[in-house]
Structures are given as structure tokens and as C-alpha cells.
Specification:
The complex is a heterodimer.
Chain A (H helix, E strand, L loop, with lengths): L17 H26 L14 H8 L7 E4 L4 H6 L4 H8 L23 E4 L7 H13 L6 E6 L6 H14 L6 E7 L2 E2 L2 E2 L20 E5 L3 H18 L3 E6 L18 H9 L2 H11 L5 H24 L24
Parallel strand pairs in A: 1-2, 1-3, 3-4, 4-8, 7-8
Antiparallel strand pairs in A: 5-6
Helix pairs in contact in A: 1-2, 1-9, 1-10, 2-7, 4-10, 5-6
Chain B lengths: L1 E5 H15 L3 E5 L15 H5 L4 E3 L4 H13 L3 E5 L10 H8 L2 H4 L9 E6 L14 H5 L5 E3 L4 H13 L4 E6 L6 E5 L11 E4 L4 E5 L3 H16 L3 E5 L2 E3 L3 H11 L2 E8 L4 H12 L9 E5 L8 H7 L3 H12 L5
Parallel strand pairs in B: 2-3, 2-4, 4-5, 5-7, 6-7, 10-11, 10-13, 13-14
Antiparallel strand pairs in B: 1-8, 6-12, 9-11
Classes of the chains: A alpha/beta, B alpha/beta.
């Protein structure tokens, strides 16, 4: 991510260098390929438990993590594969985790919903809707208390907005932000459905950004299918939060073109036409068209990126498949810190 | 050197001792700062340490407990006050789903050096929603440590240990005893977790308790000596998780009889666990079935006479000991 960012003087959406867009396209294609491989692995019985893929939402994390600075923290719910890949975790380790292997990024102890790479700033994927939000607010307070200028990128879904944990945490964030003690960027990934229930069917006030008004947190919306729009918001807002120590919320309008979980038949709760309409605005498709239109890449380059991504992910799958399961002794490790000999016998 | 202090003063002294040594220690909770704390444990500390270290929170247990977990994951050492443990149900998702497990499901990448403290148990006519003893609930979850000190010296020493512990500690205070006095060691008197305390030595029967029921057992032991010539040993568990099996088993090997006392409800309580451990580890030493004394199986009532009836009484304990000794109940 060495390419320079190009902001207009007015801070509006701007042309991004071709090189940078191609780079982001590559990342998004890799995420898509990874998620498709996961769906396959799930159907084959190689991946257990729950599996939540990011297909359709790639531009969101790709855009925001582009503005991630060393020391910042990312926290999200269980749709977390893309965040790990974008922060630089080797796809092999991510896939191995999903395959339940000892070489996985959390040693086979968390699975798809609990990806952590603390060294790179990924403070976790969490499985209880809304439950991670207070943690991210606590990170923000801690980073200011410790005298750094790091920020939290706190991802949450539209489904978390009706949860008490969200409201309690947003209230605290607004409060602590008054003293510049809460550099937390709330990134609401509004993919329109909390599992199978649409936003309209879960809250009477569907302007999710505006929910933050109640807590004194400034907010706005952005088109999450347009990577350039996301990049602009990300660059501007991460710096504002870093500068002020005050939280900010951005509702990113996106769409999950895959089922909620790999075992979900999503036609039951969505109209075919709606899915088709959103697919036309697929973030990868849109960017690809832009690259072709602007001669930033030709068909050959696109094919090359796609086949390289496939190869990269195929290697990850191979690694995961061939890795060993965790050592059986790992069952009792990592329960307590500072306890080498914990056996479960008190 | 030791001085006589109240449980309240000793508890506060433990926190202050660590705050003075480690800037990452902060206090959080409802009304702990400007108001001085509902139970005056933290009175005046906001003036000394400032509002960034003594953080007044909204009435929002899930929110601030979760935020404290986040702070702890980044190396701070928050001490969260639950105004009473009854409110912790609102934070139980954070405590159980995040604090207890995040180290495990992150493959050991994080630690959660967090203390959650507050008054536990009843006895002051607070009725159903404000009266619970939650040591068995929190003791159930691997990843948490659970302690329940009863003496002023232990409450200070165990608070020091709790703050230094790299794991989440559920610190259950004997709320009804904040004003009781005892000798407290000066300075660093850290008390190791997982070590029970023999509160009274005896040879005929072992009474096992924790929290304020230890004092009940000590009174019962005196009565047994006076009325029945029985020498009861009293064990104060102090620490529910980790648990000290050895002290317990050694005592039962000596006395051959055990009564286990808890304020909480009988079903699925700590006393049941204690009885199970004794039969597993000291079966051959037992001369009588292990007796359990517990709270009545009802939500806590308000009226004083009903409340007294709902909690273990000295008479219940002495009679349980007499049953174990096969002597006549009184």
C-alpha cells in the first residue's frame, strides 16, 4: 500500500491513481476468491461450525483498512476473514484456522468467527452480535490514556444496531469523546439484512447513521459499493478521529450477495430482482469496469490478477488441508494467562 | 506491623496500594467518583487521582464492563465496581462471553487483567432483586478467577493479588461486613489465590464456608464447644476458582466429618461441589455423610423475620454438625 493518496483540496471524492486502484482491485479479488474457496470447503465438510462470507462487501474493509496506520486497532464481528487478509495475515494461516488446524492464526481454537492477529492490529472477530462494540470503545480510551494517537476501526453490522450493547457503548463513546478520550471510528456495514430480517423489519427508524445523533456522535453515509467513495471517507475520517480523539460514525451502504451463513437459503427472504439489482453494483464489477474504461488495466491484466488470486488461495487451501490438527495438549493452554500447568483440575 | 481497620478501609487500601505503583490501574463504576461510591469504598479518590483514573460511568453495566475488558486487552488494569453484584447480570454477556474466553479463542494472543468487584450476598433487607450470591455462577466458567474474602486483612491482600493477576477476577465482597474490623498488615500483604485459610482449628468436625458465612461458622463452632464439647475446625475457602482441595481434604482426614455452608441456594451451589470433592478425595476418611446448609429455595424476601429464615442460621449449622457427629439436634 505504498501508493500515495490523492485528495482534492475540498476533500471530496477524487480520482485515485490507476496503480493504487489496480492494487485495491487485486485485494478485493483475493478476498472474493478466498470466500468462494471457503464456501467450497464448507460444502466439502472441511470447514465446520458457522461460516459467514464477505461476498459483496469487499469494498468496505478494503477501503477503510487502506487508511489503517500501525498501532491502530481493528475489531469486528464474525464476518471477519477480509479484515484479517487486508491487515496482512497470510491467507494460509487464515484458511488453516477455518480448517481447524494447529497452523491456524489462533491455533485452531476460534475458527471462522474468532480471527485474531494482535501484532497486526486485528483485535478479533466476535460471535455475539453487538457484544464486541464496548470492547472497541475501551480500546480507544486505552490508546488515548496511554498517550498514543492510534484509533479503533470498529466494524458492526446493521443487525447490531438494535442491540443494547451498541447503545451502551455508543453512549460511552460520545461521553468520553467530549474529553478527546475516544478515537473510535464506527463503521456500520449496512448490508441490509441481519441474518434473514431486513433493516425495515427490525427498526422503525432506518437511518442507521442518525442513530448516533442520540449519543452526540457525528455521522454520515457512504456508498459501500464504490471503492473510491469509501477511500475518500476512510482517509478523511480516520484522520479526523485521530486528530480530535472524538468518535465518528459512518454508515456504509452495501449488500451481501451471498447468504448470511453458508447454510442459509437466502431466496426465502429476498426478492430475486433485488439481488439482481445489487449484483449490478457489485463492488468488484464496478471497479473492474472503471479500470477498463480508464485504461488502467486491460482484459489481460484483469485475467492475470484473477488467476494469480486463484493460485494464491489454492495454495492457502492446500496448506490448510495438509496441515496437522492442533496437538491434543493445546486443549488446556490459553485458558489462564500465567498458568503453565493448568489442567482443568482446580 | 498490623493495625485494626474496617473491611471497607482495607479494601480501599488494597486498591490504592496498586494505584500508587502502577499507572495502568484505573477505577470505573457508577457513582464511584464525585459521589464517593455508594458504599464509600472509593470516597475521595477522584480528587487524588483525577477523573481519567477514577471514571464515573453511566448506569450501563454491560457497556462499561465491556469497555473495561477492551482496556484490559490493551494492557490497562481496570478495577470495575459493580454497585452490587446483582447488577452484573446486565454485564454477564461481557463477563462470560468476552472476559472469560477471549484469551482462549484468540489462541493466547491477549490477556485480560481485569478486576470486577462489589458487594455480594444479602442480609440487609434488600429483597429479591438485590440479593444474590453469585460465586457458583461465575465459578462455573473457565477463564475467570473467583474470590470471596471475609477478613479485612484478606480483602486487602486479595485485592492486591487480583489487580496483579493477568486474568479477569470476580471479586465478591462481603457487603454486609464493610464496617467490621480486623487486623490488617501494613504495606504489601498480597494473599495468594487458591489457598484456603484455617479460621479455627478443631478435631471433631470441619465446617467449610466462604464470605460472611465463615463468621457464622465461627459462632457455631463456639456454640458447639460450649454446648456439646465439640471442637469444630472452620475452613474459609477464600478462593472459589482456583480451589484449594488440599486444605479441605487434610482437614476432613483429621476430623472425618464435614458440614459445608453457603448463603446461596442449595441446588448446584458451591457446597455441592465441596461435598463432591470430599467424597472423591476423602471417601475413606468419612464417618458420616457430608452435610449441606444453604439458603432457602425462594427469592430473597424483604421482611426481617423472613429474610433471617431464608439464610443459613447458626442453629442450622450447629445441628448439621450434630447430625454429622450422630449427636442429638437442639
Amino acid at each position: 500500500m505504498s501508493a500515495e493518496k490523492e485528495h482534492s483540496e475540498h476533500g471530496g471524492a477524487v480520482a485515485t491513481s490507476s496503480e493504487r486502484l489496480v492494487d485495491l482491485y487485486k485485494k478485493m479479488v483475493e478476498i472474493r476468491a478466498f470466500e468462494e474457496a471457503c464456501q467450497k470447503g464448507f460444502r466439502q465438510g472441511k470447514i465446520g461450525g458457522y461460516l459467514h462470507v464477505y461476498i459483496g462487501q469487499e469494498a468496505v474493509a478494503t477501503g477503510f483498512i487502506d487508511s489503517f496506520k500501525e498501532g491502530d486497532k481493528v475489531i469486528t464481528a464474525y464476518r471477519d476473514h477480509a479484515h484479517a487478509l487486508l491487515l496482512g495475515t497470510d491467507p494460509k494461516e487464515v484458511m488453516a484456522e477455518l480448517y481447524g488446524k494447529g497452523t491456524g492464526m489462533v491455533k485452531g481454537k476460534g475458527g471462522s468467527m474468532h480471527l485474531f492477529d494482535v501484532e497486526r492490529g486485528l483485535m478479533g472477530g466476535y460471535g455475539i452480535v453487538g457484544g464486541h462494540i464496548p470492547l472497541g470503545v475501551g480500546f480507544a480510551y486505552a490508546m488515548r490514556y496511554q498517550g498514543t494517537d492510534h484509533i479503533t476501526q470498529l466494524y458492526l453490522g446493521d443487525g447490531a444496531i438494535s442491540n443494547g450493547a451498541f447503545h451502551e457503548a455508543a453512549n460511552l463513546a460520545g461521553l468520553w469523546g467530549k474529553d478527546g478520550m475516544c478515537p473510535c471510528l464506527f463503521i456500520i456495514e449496512n448490508n441490509q439484512y441481519g441474518m434473514g430480517t431486513s433493516v425495515e423489519r427490525t427498526t422503525a427508524m432506518t437511518d442507521l447513521a442518525a442513530k448516533f445523533d442520540a449519543y452526540g456522535i457525528e455521522n454520515e453515509k457512504v456508498d459501500g459499493m464504490d471503492i473510491e467513495a469509501v477511500l475518500e471517507s476512510a482517509g478523511r475520517l480516520t484522520e479526523q478521529v485521530r486528530e480530535t480523539g472524538k468518535p465518528y460514525a459512518i454508515e456504509v451502504l452495501t449488500y451481501r450477495t451471498a447468504p448470511h451463513g453458508a447454510a442459509d437459503f437466502f431466496e426465502k427472504y429476498r426478492e430475486k430482482e433485488e439481488i439482481e439489482e445489487w449484483r449490478k453494483r457489485d463492488p468488484i464489477g464496478l471497479l473492474e469496469q472503471k479500470l477498463l474504461d480508464n485504461d488502467a488495466a486491460d482484459e489481460e491484466k484483469i485475467d492475470e490478477i484473477r488467476s494469480e488470486a486463484k493460485e494464491l488461495i489454492a495454495e492457502a487451501v492446500k496448506f490448510a488441508d495438509e496441515s496437522e490438527e492442533p496437538e491434543i495438549d493445546e486443549l488446556y493452554t490459553d485458558v489462564y494467562a500465567g498458568a503453565d500447568e493448568y489442567t482443568g483440575e482446580e | 506491623m498490623a493495625e485494626t481497620k474496617t473491611y471497607r478501609e482495607a479494601l480501599r487500601e488494597g486498591m490504592v496500594h496498586e494505584m500508587d505503583q502502577d499507572e495502568s490501574v484505573v477505577l470505573m463504576g457508577e457513582d464511584i467518583g464525585v459521589y464517593g461510591g455508594t458504599h464509600l469504598i472509593t470516597d475521595g479518590l477522584i480528587d487524588e487521582y483525577g477523573p481519567k483514573r477514577v471514571i464515573d460511568t453511566p448506569i450501563s453495566e454491560g457497556g462499561f464492563t465491556g469497555a473495561a475488558i477492551g482496556m484490559a486487552m490493551l494492557g490497562m488494569k481496570p478495577v470495575v465496581e459493580m454497585m452490587t453484584w446483582n447488577f452484573s447480570f446486565l454485564a454477564s454477556d461481557q463477563i462470560i462471553q468476552n472476559a472469560a474466553k477471549v484469551r482462549y479463542f484468540s489462541g493466547g494472543q491477549v490477556e485480560v487483567p481485569l478486576v470486577i468487584r462489589g458487594p455480594n450476598g444479602g442480609g440487609v433487607q434488600l429483597s429479591a432483586q438485590h440479593t444474590h450470591s453469585l460465586e457458583n455462577l461465575y465459578g462455573h466458567f473457565p477463564g475467570l478467577k473467583v474470590v470471596s474474602p471475609v477478613t479485612p486483612n484478606d480483602v486487602k491482600g486479595m485485592m492486591i493479588t487480583a489487580i496483579r493477576d493477568p486474568n479477569p477476577v470476580i471479586f465478591l465482597e462481603a457487603g454486609a461486613l464493610y464496617g467490621t474490623k480486623g487486623e490488617v498488615e501494613e504495606g504489601d500483604n498480597a494473599v495468594e489465590f487458591g489457598k484456603a485459610r484455617v479460621a479455627r482449628e478443631g478435631s471433631d468436625v470441619t465446617l467449610i464456608a466462604y464470605g460472611r458465612q465463615v463468621n457464622l461458622c465461627l459462632r457455631a463452632a463456639n456454640t458447639l464447644e460450649e454446648e456439646d464439647g465439640v471442637q469444630a475446625e472452620v475452613i474459609d475457602l477464600r478462593s472459589i476458582r482456583p480451589f484449594d482441595e488440599d486444605t479441605l481434604v487434610r482437614s476432613v482426614e483429621k476430623t472425618h466429618r464435614a458440614v459445608t455452608v453457603q448463603e446461596q441456594w442449595r441446588w448446584f451451589g458451591v457446597a455441592s461441589e465441596v461435598a463432591a470433592i470430599i467424597q472423591e478425595k476423602a471417601f475413606d476418611s468419612l464417618d458420616a455423610p457430608v452435610q449441606r446448609v444453604s439458603g432457602a429455595e425462594v427469592p430473597a424476601p424483604y421482611a426481617r423475620n423472613l429474610e433471617l429464615e431464608a439464610f443459613p442460621s447458626e442453629k442450622q449449622v450447629t445441628n448439621a454438625a450434630r447430625r454429622a457427629l450422630y449427636i442429638e439436634e437442639k
